[in-house]
C-alpha cells in the first residue's frame, strides 16, 4: 500500500515526501506542475536515496484521477494540490473555485469509490479571516475574507459533510500558519513563480540581489516596532506535523482540525533582522501604506496538535533563516525550468524530466 500525495512536487509537498520516505512509507505523487517543478521530485529521491511513482495529473481530470486509484493500492491520501496565491485569487476568483473545489471533489469521489477513507488535508489559517482572537484556537469562528481562503473553508465543510454521511472516514484538517525555511541540505525549498507573494522568499531574493528592496506594508500597527506580526513555522516541522496527522487518521476514526504553528509571532522587521544575521547581507526595505485586510497580529495556539497529535514545532527563527539562505545561495534561480512535453504522432504525450519518465 502507498500514501498518495497530491501536489507533492510543491514547496511543502516535497518536504512531506522526504519525511514520508525517510519514515519508511511508499509514496505516489500526483502533480500538474502548474506551480512546481519535476526537479523537486528528483531531488527528493536524491536526498532519501529512494524511488517512487510520479504522475503528471491535474485533479480536475476526473477520469485520470480514478485511473490512478484503479492501478495502485492507496492506503491514505495527503491532499495539498491547489492554487494558493491570495492576491491572484481576488483577481481571478472563478479560477480558484473551479480548480480547488472541483479537484477536491474529484479526489474525494475516487477515494470513496476505491474505499480509501484516510485523509490529511492541507488547509490554512486564512480560514479564520481577520479575527481579533489571539492566539487563534481551532474553535475560533471561521470567516475567510478572500477567494483562496474561502476555497479552503469550503473544502473543510465538504469533508465535514462527507464524514457526517459516513463516519468510517478518518480526516485531519491541518491549518497552516506561515511556512518558511527549507530542508537543511539546501536541495529543496520554496521556488515561487515571478515576484514572491510571501515575506521570506522576498527577503531572501533581496538579500541575494534579485530584487532591489523589500516593501513593508505598514509601520503603525500595535506591535513593538509597528510592523505586522505573524506565526512563522519551519517547513520541516510542518512536514512532521503531516506524518503525525497521518498516524492519527490511520489509528482512529473521526474528523478534526489542527493548527500547525509555533504559538508565537515575529514582526516583519524582526524577520529582516534575523535574516540579515543569518546571511550576513543587508536587506534594504521601504515603508508602504498598510494593505487592506492585513491583520496586525496573527499567531496560533498549537495546544490541540501537541495534545492530540503529539506534535510541536522545534525549529526557531534562526534555523528558519539559515536554512532559507542556504537554499537561496545554492539555487539563486530556484529550480531551473527543465523540459517541455515531447509528442509523437499517434502516441500519448510523455514528459522526460530530471532522469525519470512521467506520464501525462
Question: Which regions are unreliable across 5 or more consecutive residues at pLDDT < 50?
Answer: 338-360
The topology string of helices and strands comes to EHEHEHEHHEHEEHEEEHEEHEEHHEE
Question: What percent strand?
Answer: 15-25%
SS-derived structural category: alpha/beta
The CATH superfamily label of the domain at 2-188 and 233-263 and 299-314 and 336-341 and 349-359 reads NAD(P)-binding Rossmann-like Domain
Number of distinct helices = 11
Q: How many whole angstroms does the radius of gyration measure?
A: 20 Å
Main sheet record: 7 strands, parallel
Approximate shape: globular
Mean pLDDT: 92
CATH architecture of the domain at 2-188 and 233-263 and 299-314 and 336-341 and 349-359: 3-Layer(aba) Sandwich
Provide the helix percentage.
Answer: 25-40%
- Quaternary assembly: single chain
CATH topology of the domain at 2-188 and 233-263 and 299-314 and 336-341 and 349-359: Rossmann fold
